[in-house]
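Journal club prep, notes for RB
We'll compare a predicted complex against what the paper describes. Inputs for the flavin mononucleotide case:
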Amino acid sequence: MTKPRILLIVGGGIAAYKSIELVRLLRKSGMTVRCVITRAGEQFVTPLTLAALSENKVYTNLFDLKDEVEMGHIQLSREADLVVVAPATADLLAKMAAGIADDLATTLLLATDKPVLAAPAMNVRMWLHPATQRNVATLRGDGVTVLDPDEGEMACGEYGPGRLPEPAAIFAAIESRLSNPLASSAVEAPPLPSRVSTSLDTNGSLDHQPDFAPENHRPLFGRRILITAGPTHEPIDPVRYIANRSSGKQGFAIAAAAAEAGAEVLLIAGPVPLPTPPGVIRVDVETAVEMAEEVRQGLPVDAAIMVAAVADWRAADTSAQKIKKDGSGAVPPLALAENPDILAGVARSPDRPPLLIGFAAETNDVIAHAEAKLAKKGCDWIVANDVAADPMGGESNRVHIVSKNGIDSWDRLPKAAVARKLMEKIADELDARSPRHSD
Ligand SMILES: Cc1cc2nc3c(=O)[nH]c(=O)nc-3n(C[C@H](O)[C@H](O)[C@H](O)COP(=O)(O)O)c2cc1C
């Protein structure tokens, strides 16, 4: 049986980041996904992220003539089995109800002959406004499935309905709508099937929608950031490897914070069992050599943050078979070879990012070692991490940012807080070097 095709329209709401998780769930289930993003939606997620996850071109502009030749807007609206709007903003619901077609998303919604499912998300007052309630009633009367938003605490101190249903709940509603094509306005998102899990389920920091209209809500919008995280595993034979105690938690927290701050994030991760933060493009590697190659391919970027604890050495020779004891008591020789120095390599590269940051986990003379590393590696900042009291793998970090301008020492903080503070500092630094065109 051919897998269903979904046309996903992403509107300009703060919950747009959850559409990324929805795309991941749809793709994981084998469905084909084409994304359309509104102009306002682009302020919250990048077309590149949606393209990478949907493995399909993302459409943004009605008057893109090339697309009219290759795939006209009428064809695009009809090629899907289901059109999904998530998040459906108050604005999109109003335009859909009124039949307005003044951009690509609304034109597709008016031109489609396929069922439509909308997952609203907005401030509670906007949701409860008689105009929105009228529009929802009109849409349901027209046969559009409009999910009820979740109820919960909103920023601005308000509580009530308006939060986007969790991606897994939208996914379940999509499955239900696809298996029941004649059904129209199922108003409740059905319960989640147990096999579905999302990164949002395990990522406490994203359990709640961010503030509705925070000031300068995306300070890294328009920036591309590369992050390495975790340990590397250097094989000795098929079952043994050289490793270290890095948990990857700090690097993953930094990737999550960078994505929340609006950056396009490429996370190159060593072997760690951590879920991918929403909105992050992740490449998994095992060895230092693989990590160096992925980093090289990931450049150029605006900032690179090298958090991974890359093994200094690897086994000089790797045995194709498991090395066995021969009973003589003789110990097999283990010759080591030096791994590439990824941080120094990036610093020397013609694609050196404008802001290059290294991490240094130290157990003694933390700042002196960091100053030496800054000079030796040719990077802009070293985030020196005191691991004497609390070795790698803990939940907090005490860091010192060492640069040619001096030392900025922070109190011990949870890793997510270190990550957010670091993003603020990076955003300020990048803005000082090259102001952004838009936010
Ligand atoms: C920070 C911020 C967050 C917003 N969040 C929402 C939201 O969650 N829901 C909504 O309906 N509108 C929200 N808006 C307003 C919409 O972005 C605005 O109405 C826009 O015109 C919607 O365009 P679209 O429906 O074409 O995507 C937000 C605006 C800002 C600046």
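Talking point for the session: The chain is about 35% helix and 20% strand.
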